[in-house]
């Protein structure tokens, strides 16, 4: 299964850039519609649920809108509206951002009218160096912008100190955090304004504004607690997994992604710490915001959570010439050994001999995984989950939930698993990329995950901040 990245999709759909290039949206819609109808494994499943008449009415409505859409963003918005009829995940329609069509046009009037924070920077710098107790006032950076924050009557004003390679100039107001430090108005790169974004102050030296702007304090810095240091490590781990001993009773492993590219790194972390895991009573596996990847990337975790045979319901592939080209490409992929390449080639041939049909590439609809032994330790395993989990990560959770050792803690997952194995195809005019699914799970409709998600055994509500989840779950496990 290919990774569903909710953050990337959000950035695509909510892009604040203006693409001035015109396009033939009607032609692009008809292409996307035809390609999706012929190749997506979930198309007829949706039509059976919602009805052909309802779909026909939607198509007529979208076609009229497409005729009036003249720019790339307008067209993308129209076709995205159409796509929501099918499912919320494992689908994409995005502008291909390249030199040909990425024409970032920023309104010069907006730049000129941007509010200015009148301040003497040298005096401001001396002032913050005298502050002994941490406040929001100080010098911050996200890597692109160097920003000063000063207390004003309206709240906390974030002003530009330096912003090379952007259209921003010193003293322009970048954001305004309200007096209770809970919400902010933020001006984006193109000077468009986003209002009432949630503000998360992480310890003494980090600020997250609406999951859009992450600021790290440059001066004056203050010491953070170990809990905050651990949470910051979690936030900035990127796609690297890591292991940590939390106490004599509890170990912790963070796995941010199951992408095939990270399998070796995941396996390496697990192998290097397997001795510690096998002698520790409790294990916390943190997969928050892990959007998926490849099933093989979580194989090394299974022995630690295994207590009884694990049943996995299989899937069937929709055989079309376009879909089958993916299998042919995998058979030539040098990242796979000869055995895997041969298997993909055989799969390609099987699919090609059954064009227009759903084809199972396995002799078994349900696979049952049996291991030789159950490890005495860890005795208890908590898996931290949230709305950022989808695809392969949800498949991992379906397997993990069958263990007597495992409980899920957190919030409901995204729900993007039933229609899977994603393909990307570029529009004839080269401006758009359509993403759709080539396979359909045998679980549906009796055990659908799409648009529903997987619920936790222990719901962690909003009164428990994200940065306290690990400590909170550790306390439950150890008590």
UniProtKB/TrEMBL annotation:
Pfam families given in the database record: Peptidase_S41 (PF03572)
InterPro entries according to UniProt: ClpP/crotonase-like_dom_sf (IPR029045), Tail-specific_protease (IPR005151)
Domain (Tail specific protease) ranges: 249-459
Signal sequence extent: 1-20
Keyword Acetylation among record annotations: no
Keywords: Signal
Keyword Signal attributed: yes
Protein's name in the database: S41 family peptidase
Organism (species): Chryseobacterium terrae
């Amino acid at each position: 299964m290919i990774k569903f990245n909710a953050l990337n999709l959000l950035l695509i759909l909510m892009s604040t850039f203006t693409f001035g290039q015109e396009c033939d949206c009607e032609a692009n819609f008809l292409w996307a519609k035809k390609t999706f109808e012929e190749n997506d494994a979930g198309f007829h499943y949706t039509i059976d649920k919602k009805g052909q008449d309802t779909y026909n009415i939607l198509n007529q409505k979208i076609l009229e809108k497409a005729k009036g859409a003249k720019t790339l963003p307008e067209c993308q918005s129209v076709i995205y509206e159409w796509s929501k009829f099918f499912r919320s995940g494992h689908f994409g329609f995005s502008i291909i951002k390249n030199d040909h069509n990425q024409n970032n046009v920023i309104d010069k009037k907006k730049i000129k009218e941007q509010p200015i924070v009148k301040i003497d920077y040298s005096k401001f710098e001396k002032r913050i160096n005298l502050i002994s107790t941490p406040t929001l006032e100080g010098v911050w950076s996200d890597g692109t912008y160097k920003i000063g924050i000063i207390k004003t009557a309206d709240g906390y004003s974030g002003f530009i100190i330096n912003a090379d390679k952007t259209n921003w100039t010193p003293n322009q107001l970048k954001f305004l955090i309200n007096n209770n430090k809970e919400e902010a108005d933020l001006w984006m790169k193109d000077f468009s304004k986003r209002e009432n974004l949630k503000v998360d102050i992480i310890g003494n030296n980090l600020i997250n504004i609406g999951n859009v702007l992450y600021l790290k304090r440059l001066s004056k810095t203050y010491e953070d607690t170990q809990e905050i240091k651990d949470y910051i490590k979690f936030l900035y781990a990127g796609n690297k997994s890591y292991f940590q001993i939390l106490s004599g009773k509890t170990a912790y492993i963070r796995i941010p992604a199951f992408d095939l590219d990270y399998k070796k790194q995941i396996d390496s972390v697990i192998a290097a710490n397997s001795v510690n895991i096998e002698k520790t009573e409790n294990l916390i596996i943190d997969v928050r915001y892990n959007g998926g990847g490849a099933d093989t990337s979580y194989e090394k975790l299974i022995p630690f959570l295994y207590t009884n045979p694990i049943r996995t319901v299989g899937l069937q592939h929709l055989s079309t010439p376009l879909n089958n080209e993916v299998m042919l490409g995998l058979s030539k992929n040098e990242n796979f050994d000869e055995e895997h390449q041969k298997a993909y080639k055989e799969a390609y041939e099987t699919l090609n001999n059954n064009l227009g049909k759903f084809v199972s590439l396995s002799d078994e609809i349900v696979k049952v995984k049996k291991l030789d032994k159950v490890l005495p330790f860890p005795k208890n395993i908590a898996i931290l989950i949230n709305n950022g989990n989808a695809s392969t990560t949800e498949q991992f959770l379906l397997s993990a939930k069958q263990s007597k050792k495992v409980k899920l803690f957190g919030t409901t997952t995204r729900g993007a698993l039933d229609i899977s194995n994603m393909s990307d195809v570029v529009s004839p005019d080269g401006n758009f990329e359509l993403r759709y699914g080539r396979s359909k799970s045998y679980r549906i409709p009796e055990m659908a995950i799409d648009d529903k998600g997987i619920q936790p055994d222990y719901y962690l509500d909003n009164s428990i901040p994200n940065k306290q989840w690990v400590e909170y779950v550790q306390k439950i496990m150890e008590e």
